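Intended use. Records such as the Purine permease entry shown here are meant for training and evaluating sequence-to-structure methods. They are not intended to support clinical decisions.
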Amino acid sequence: MSANPEVSTPAACDGVDERLPTGRLATLGLQHVMVMYAGAVAVPLIIGAALGLSKEQIAFLINADLLCCGLITIIQARGLGMFGIKLPVMMGVSFAAVSPMIAIGLDPQLGLPGISAPPFWPVSSVF
């Protein structure tokens, strides 16, 4: 049998499994981190400003968000038992929940004013 020149071999494909040079990997990794970081900081800034939080409270939201994003990224990338996809991904924040969080935060019975208000029923009756 003669070899068919029209059939491509796996080596001639796009190179999905190809390892890029270190400089290019570092540049693309930095770009990925910066995009994730911008999204992770924007959501707490939007929510904090809409709810009228102080700068310290907004800074706390940003720190909590970055901590959670980092922990979940490690769990997803490295795996933790049966959790994690074990792929090089970065987990970030979704903008889909911004409007509901602002609506809940501004509702006087649910949000920030509702936290400091007296409860509607005695705590002892719940248990």
